[in-house]
Input
Amino acid sequence: MAEQEGAKPGKSSAADLLAAWRAAERDTTTAEESASVASLTAAAANEAAMAATETAEAVRRSIEAAERAEEAAERTSEAAELAAKAATRESASAGDAAERAREAAKAARDAFHDAQERGFPKDG
Output
């Protein structure tokens, strides 16, 4: 081929010119296919980059959601503790009220029985 490359136009045989033409067409086809593959590779790389960006955003949002859930759990725990303390106070208060009511009922029962034994005296 080195001899042909140095040859002047019009000095080559028809077979040489045809072979050069066919080789040039093969080179063109190969280059076009390479360009097409490179274009597809670039498109795939762009898609991968977009997917990575979306994944990073999803991870960021997941972390944010987990942090919010943790904060909500902490608030719920605090509210449950307050409710438990209030329930304990209410229970103690209700126990005291029940004891006073039992004492009042016993006093009323005793007063009734005393009055009954005395024939229900009338005052005044």
